[in-house]
Write a structure and sequence with these properties.
By secondary structure, this protein is an alpha/beta fold. Helices cover 34% and strands 17% of the residues. A four-stranded mixed β-sheet has the order 1-3-2-4, covered by helices on one side. Strands 6-5-7 form a three-stranded mixed β-sheet, covered by helices on one side.
Length: 244
């Protein structure tokens, strides 16, 4: 089951900034970095922002936190959410996804050029290791994917995990000792600041992408064939019937 929790906004409670992660892992592993780490980041950001909310310090928009079901067998929870909330997706101002999130240093905004808000935020969070490092190339295979394909703005953290983590990916070695506390704390802190900035911005920081722009973004990243193999036939795929 997907678990959802909201902190209602003040001026625009119908608009949503969402943070999510998947708690499921492969059966052979503890799943500490994939994705106990991302789930813990979401829970920590929710804890901190809930404390502010309880004290009456609240952003303009609603903050929503999600623990997505069944990511490892096909992003089932996040796909189901997008299908069930199709009419409300235009009210989703931004989505952050935390999946094997390491030590943060920049922002990933697929399909979107760097903007003033995230640039200023990177400067503000420089003591935590953030800098104006941006990437707009689309990628697949985590719970941001169904939102990205629907044109909802995605804001991810560019981050670095220790090299040895890759050797234990989806294996027995993905145990709690692979999680470093200081990078986890920095990722949670950057995540909380970023969620707050997105939720409290006077104007929407990033626009929704229409289907044609989503298609162009996917073509630039050479992802069309991968999506077709996976059986995707959503709005972004209807712009062109064949791969160019």
């Amino acid at each position: 089951r997907t678990v959802l929790a909201d902190l209602p906004g003040t001026e625009r409670p119908d608009e949503i900034v969402l943070a999510g992660a998947h708690p499921d892992s492969w059966g052979v592993a503890q799943g500490a970095t994939d994705n106990g780490l991302g789930s813990a980041i979401v829970l920590e950001t929710a804890r901190v922002l809930a404390l502010l909310h309880a004290a009456g310090i609240r952003p303009r928009r609603t903050l929503r936190f999600a623990l997505w079901a069944a990511e490892e067998i096909g992003l089932l929870g996040s796909h189901r959410y997008v299908d069930a909330h199709g009419a409300a997706l235009p009210l989703h101002v931004g989505v952050m996804n935390f999946d094997m999130t390491g030590d943060p240093y920049g922002y990933w905004t697929p399909g979107h050029a760097p903007n003033r808000l995230l640039g200023a935020l990177a400067d503000q969070l420089a003591p935590l290791g953030m800098r104006r490092a941006f990437d707009d190339k689309a990628g697949l295979h985590s719970d941001h994917e169904p939102f990205m394909l629907a044109g909802v703005p995605v804001v991810g953290l560019k981050a670095v995990l220790p090299p040895e983590v890759g050797r234990y990916y989806h294996g027995f070695g993905d145990t709690f000792d692979k999680v470093a506390v200081a990078p986890f704390a920095r990722a949670a802190c950057v995540g909380a600041h970023t969620l707050w900035a997105l939720a409290d911005a006077p104007d929407r920081p990033l626009p929704h992408l229409p289907p044609g722009d989503v298609r162009a973004m996917l073509e630039r990243a050479d992802l069309i064939e991968a999506l077709q193999v996976a059986g995707y036939h959503g709005p972004a795929m209807r712009v062109s019937a064949t791969r160019p």
